[in-house]
Amino acid sequence: AEAGDLVVVSIPLSAYEKIPAQPLAGKIVIDTLNYYPVRDGRIAELDANELTSSELVQRHLADSRVVKAASNIVVSQLFSLARPSGAPDRSAMPIAGDDAAAKAEVVELLDLLGYDAVDIGTLADSWRSEPGTPVYCKPYFGEVPKDVSLDKTMEWIFQAPGVPVPADRVRERTATVVRPAGGSFSVDAWR
């Protein structure tokens, strides 16, 4: 954390208060955290949609510049879908943040990693890419084959090479979404 200008935080949301704030002061923190009540326990402010998980992280890291990014894609597709800039099958990811300069740096990093970025607004808007929304994970892994059993679904997802999701599709899916109530995750929803 002390060595990096951009620091990626990828832990269960239930541990967000354990993120050391002082070493991250003044840094850009890329927030990949998602709220899963079954894993994280209930967080009243998130269940009531008073805050987003990213706003909760920003509140904890008050002296950092938090940008929500790379939180809506499974790690296997994160690697397999990366493409050079300008590739016709390049995917995009939504980003959200309150600091325009920080978002610009995250856009540059995503470009280097092989992705376009779609700015979906502030941290208050970051819910548009959270679990239960149309841009959360499923577009990147595609349709689970009908012959894959429910108990093998996650295994299939983590082995799937993925499906490109262009910027216009990310824009469309994040612009028309209705906010789900307090974090959700269901393997059934991914089928």
Taken from the alpha-carbon principal axes, the silhouette is: globular
Which stretches of 5+ consecutive residues score pLDDT under 50? none
Beta-strand segment tally? 5
Number of domains: 1
How much β-strand is present in the residues? Answer: 5-15%
| Strand order of the biggest β-sheet | 1-2-3-4-5
Helix content: 25-40%
Helix tally equals 9
Order of helices and strands: EHEHHHEHEHEHHH
CATH superfamily grouping: NAD(P)-binding Rossmann-like Domain
Level-1 CATH class name = Alpha Beta
Predict the CATH topology: Rossmann fold
| CATH architectural grouping | 3-Layer(aba) Sandwich
Average the pLDDT over all residues and give the rounded result.
Answer: 93
Report how far the terminal alpha carbons are from each other.
37 Å
Radius of gyration: 16 Å
Helix and strand composition category:
alpha/beta
Largest sheet: 5 strands, mixed
Fold and architecture overview:
It is built from nine helices and five strands. With 191 residues, it is of the alpha/beta class. The chain has a single domain (6-180), classed as Rossmann fold. The chain has a five-stranded mixed sheet, with helices on both faces. It is globular and about 50 Å long. The model has no long low-confidence stretch (mean pLDDT 93).
